[in-house]
Amino acid sequence: MSSGPRLLSILALIGLSVLFLAPACAGSPQEELDSLVSPGEQAILLEILGRIDPPQRIRDLARYGRRQSDLGGGFYGILPDQLADGEAIPVPTDADSRLAAALHLARQRRDNLDALARFNPEFVTGFTGRPLIQFLAEVEGMGVGSPADRPDLHLHLDTSALDGFLEALLDDGEITEQEASELAALPGNQAMLQHRRELGYVPEPLPDTGSLAAMIRLAGSTDPLDQLWCWLNPQNAFDYADLAWHVQEYRDLVLQLDENRNGLTGFVLDRIGRFTPPDVSLDATFALTVGWAIRGWVTPEMAGLNIEQVKDDWRFLLGTMIEETYHRLQLELIPSPEGRSVSDFSGLVAVATGAPRYDRFYEILTYTVAEGAANQVRGRFAAADLSAKAAGGAELLDRFVHDVVLAGAIDEADPLLNEGLKGNGPLYGLGWELAGLVIEADGPRAMGELQRKGPVAFVKRGDGISRLAGEPLLSPAVTAALDTLQTLLLSR
Questions:
Q1: What CA–CA distances, in Å, run from 139 to 177, 261, 319?
Q2: Would you say 48 and 9 are in contact if contact means Cβ atoms under 8 Å apart?
Q3: DSSP letter at 90?
Q4: What's the CA gap between 367 and 360, in Å, rounded?
Q5: Which of 408, 449, 459, 489 has the fewest CB atoms in 10 Å of its CB?
Q6: Same-domain pairing of 92 and 150
Q7: How far is CA 130 from each of CA 127, 232, 246, 252, 285, rounded to the nearest angstrom?
Q8: Cα-Cα-Cα-Cα dihedral of 267, 421, 305, 303, to 10°?
């Protein structure tokens, strides 16, 4: 794993000592450390350990996990505790104990990365090095700027949240409290925090501006314990740890985005324009930010992407930009069931029909339509297995109708919704199939027009097309529930 200039400068101070590490004996601590950490990182790690004063202070790392959780950057038990037993951490007082401490930390880091791979296998841990301009040249139909036939669609790329963090570290190797506060208050970061708050299912405590600033400051600190904490896990410090240890790689990434922003945003708009009614306009910002466990996000003000989730996986990045920008458009496209403007998807899915069971049915339908349509717009950059998930999505919706709508087990609504949506789940596949049927029968822009009529009309149209083809997608129980819900909506 490579390191940012701030930490590479440490190597310059160490000189070539890394080349003269004592040869490892078979089965020795040094041999195990060699298997876990590259020689360059070993040199950095040992140098940091040597700066801890007094050495006993290393055991304060046991308190970092609790502090991180209190700031809203915890892992909610999804990832393992880190260094929870401070007394077990070797105190680095001499060469042997520094080696023992380095090995203890390296084992924890290995466990962290293994857990991360299980929890979030899509999290990109390395950089490909592939130039963005090369990727864009290979994308067929790339647009430059706003598409000629849709000059009313505009998208502005905002990289200020990344620029400020990276430039501060490149300038003087540290981020001050003032700089961290200014970064946390940027519009992109504020929108990212707003989206996280408004999701409704992320447990407390949630990060606010002050706690985000504290985590940015931690990642930009020169304190040896802060540096070790960030080295342990790329997802520490709300994922800013990843940037702190890959400063130059992220800086190169942002420079490529700046140089190719017209090509990138042009392709996004070109793709979205094909599915957007002619009287719908868009003037939106797409912000690149940092944030644990969430890849894309959207608010009324802007859409965004937490860049560390994809790095320079350009297909993933472009696909996420398309999907989240279209989600931003859907806030205006899909009608609010209460006829009022809404600030997020929770406002689109909330309806009061007088029958709570059908209110929850409306919710699951809206999410299914929104995600399915957005992934059809994403097109070639969508997950390859969505179509294969359609049958599972139809089965889950049938269970929802039987358990929640008919049997009245409203407590089952959230677990079923989570099962259907988590990790591009089966409801994504069902939505993909419904939207695909509409596009094939009526055309791309008709999909946008149909969303204006609401999720019930959209699902009924997609299912109706499947029945005309002799391959009904939805069960009789679901179609009957759709009819009842439509009646309830019309009678309000």
A1: 42, 15, 12
A2: no
A3: P
A4: 11
A5: 408
A6: no
A7: 8, 27, 16, 11, 26
A8: 70
Residue 142 to residue 92: CA distance in whole angstroms: 55
CB 353 within 8 A of CB 486: no
- In the sheet that holds 296-298, the strands lie side by side as 153-158, 282-289, 302-306, 296-298
How many helices (H) and strands (E) in the chain?
23, 4
By C-alpha distance, which of 445, 459, 93 is closest to 272? Answer: 445
Radius of gyration of the chain (CA): 25
Q: What angle do CA 186, 161, 126 make, to 5 degrees?
A: 155
Q: Could you report the per-residue pLDDT of 411-461, keeping only the tens digit for each?
A: 999 999 999 998 899 999 999 999 999 999 999 999 999 999 999 999 999
Indicate whether 172 and 245 sit together in one domain.
yes
- CB of 273 within 8 A of CB of 147? yes
Placement of tokens 């017209």 in the chain: 262
Is the separation of the CB atoms in 207 and 71 below 8 Å?
Answer: yes
The answer to whether the beta carbons of residues 256 and 132 sit under 8 Å apart is yes
274-333 pLDDT tens trace: 999 999 999 999 999 999 999 999 998 899 999 999 999 999 999 999 999 999 999 889
119, 200, 241, 379 from 311: Cα distances, Å? 18, 27, 14, 21
Spell out the residues 6+ positions from residue 355 whose beta carbon is closer than 8 angstroms to its own: 488
- In which residue are the tokens 């204006």 written? 452
The owner of tokens 């961290």 is 180
CB 144 within 8 A of CB 270: no
What is the pTM (predicted TM-score) of this model? 0.87
Residue 14 to residue 205: CA distance in whole angstroms: 41
Closest CA to 112 of 101, 128, 96, 123: 123
- State the number of CA atoms in the 13 A half-sphere of 359 facing the CB: 14
| Residues 153 and 448: beta-carbon distance below 8 Å | no
Classify the C-alpha dihedral 361-364-367-373 as positive or negative.
Answer: negative
My answer on whether 93 and 179 are in the same domain is: no
Please identify, among 119, 148, 166, the residue that sits at the C-terminal boundary of a domain.
Answer: 119
Question: Both 14 and 146 in a single domain?
Answer: no
Helix (H) / strand (E) element for 252: namely: helix 247-259
Q: Which domain holds residue 95?
A: 5-119
